[in-house]
What does this fold into?
Amino acid sequence: MILNILWFIFVMILFAGFFVLEGFDYGVGMLLPWLGRKEADRRAILRTIGPHWDGNEVWMITAGGALFAAFPAAYATLFSAFYLPVVLLLAALIVRGAGFEYRNRMNHARWRIFWDWGIFAGSLLAAFLWGVVMGNLARGFAIRADGNYYDGLLPLLNPYALASGLLFAALFTLHGAIFLIRKAPLEIAERAAKAGRSVWLAVLCGLILFDLWTWQTTDILSRPGLNGLPASALAWLALLFTGLALRQRRTGWAFLGSALTILCLITMIFTGLYPRILISTLDPGYSLTITNAASSAYTLRVMTIVTVFLLPLVLTYQAWTYWVFRQRVSVKVEESQE
Amino acid sequence: MDIVSLSRWQFAITVIYHFFFVPTTLGLSILIALFESLYVRRGDEVYKQMAKFWGRLLVINFAAGVVTGIVQEFHFGLNWSEYARFMGDIFGAPLAIEALLAFYLESTFLGVWIFGWERVSKGIHLAAAWLVALASNLSALWILIANSFMQHPVGYAIENGRAVMTDFWALLANPNLPYQFFHVFFVGVATAGFLLLGFSAWHLWRDGSKVAEVFQRSFRWAAVSALTGAVLLGLIGHAHGQFLGRVQPMKISATEAHWETAQPADFIVVARIDEKNRRNTFEVKVPKALSFLIYNNFTGEVRGINDLQAELEARYFARYGPASYIPPVTLVFWAFRLMVGVGLLMILLALLAMLRPRWKFLQRAWFLRLLLPAMALPYLAATTGWIVTEGARQPWIVYGLQKVEEAVSPGLTTGSVLFSLIFFTLLLGALTIVAGWLMYRAGTAQPQVAGDVVQY
It folds into this structure.
């Protein structure tokens, strides 16, 4: 049982890590056409995430893989229930990934513009759809007695989940803008700072709305005992701290703030869920939990040993690459002349 | 079409797209790390140019491999949720380990390799190249641990209607695994070899005596890689067939369209197959050769599809009642023959490429021009090979434990699966064309024009 709890925490960490890390490269993707006015600017913007985006995306793959290994029944229900949204999500990830690697392979303005908008749309759609999925996780959906979901797409596109999608997109835009303030050439960083301040206000309004709505439609914040309320309060503190740091131009603190906001928001949802993974709105007994959806104790033990060895290693070398590429990106002279 | 067939087509199509890019990464990452090692040890700039030039192809290819691969990670949940439920206790672990152990490593250090030429020391940069090569091949190992379980389940028990892992080490020691892994590994080596041969030949042919040293050297290395890969993958494939002949005779008999038990058994070279009446209406045979291929002697008994069908039907009668356990014979029969034919052609071409410096007639333009389309051969062989492996396992998704039709997600509608099938086919098809075309451009560019690995 202790391993089931541990794996619930691992899955949460992996999802939180995914949103914190890939959140900023989704954000940079969404900001790309708006902050990059000249070709040289857009290249510089993409160079800020160039070495990192793929490593960040592996967090999503690993989160999915860990859910599969530790809670296969939840993996099975989640991805088959969200069939069309996940298909669209995959398409969005395919287009933005191809865009990052292929836009500079041809020296044609139209080719580049096509991929720039592909990166924008792919990043926006991916951020939004993950928000929709997380919103539905908090709200629950019509899981039947056999553990499956049969009601199609429309119930998943409920207003609460859509609002959650918008909040995620806004939050990742803020996170990406702060990343650009630190990493992009100064002229772009200035624009990113302006964008960041207005997006911050949007996130603030969004978070108020989302928390109230969560309070009203889900039991994530309101159920007695363990709930998401403490993490929600911390998310608030982190977001206010982010705004303060932005105002004071303490960009490192601002980045930490937006990262913590995302982390606390995910923690809020997961603590509110625990010990459920997927809530059934039909009958609490149909919900998939850390016991009825879990792998055998043997598999959990194997996976625990493997993860305890590998995850710190991964964190170390990924942190190292952020240190290697810590410098601010500059506009290359030959590019600015194009 | 029903949901099972549509889901099947979708998995087959997306995974075939994915496997266009996988072997290239497996082999090319090794060759590039090798070139960079030679550059670092000898200080020879030509090897650095080689690493950078072919590195561009690796990066284009890798991106397509990543984005087509993401689909697979979620496919087991999307379309095959009953499989995920039944098999997740065993199948999820190698998938998660693949991500933790290999995907992080390969993506992180590929980033360092691409963007780090001026940022990190030569030694660290070289280490990054080798880590990418190691990690790609580790990821192949772990996904094949998962696939080997589907082909030949070991280390499990059935509890409460689902398969649970009882012995992790048995999964790693699956006797089917070494054959599958090294078969795939050498496909990678051969694919990369033919890729470099093709583009180097293009430059040798176009630029004649002025050709850059990069391509002369690449050609020689590529010939070695192509020949080693093609020969060893053939030998391992043959050993794999002998192994399957012992443990899963249906797979072999179906692949050989061998309907009736015979001792000794003839090898059918080509046949007109009548799947409905379970016989061949026309055959060209080599006497006793099938016995020899499987047992290394001319006397062994090879059981026919019809006997095996009767035996399997009796064995699983309690669970499934009357049912067919015969794979799509025509498909796997011809896919196998195409694969072997292409493999032999690869060995021949690679051998000729090795002999090129000695034999005058190979130095003419026709041979160089032939090597460009020959780049397609390893892809054809790999694809037909997977069609044989996965096709001859039918109707099972996990051999003996779960059928494909039992594995599909129950909540899906025909419309949504039809939509995703068409959507993925077109999207990944477009992506494959774009990636192939960009690789062609990169491969036929001049090295000095090629500039850096990535122009961000």
The first strand of chain A starts at residue 276 and ends at 278. Chain A touches chain B through 67 residues (CB under 8 Å).
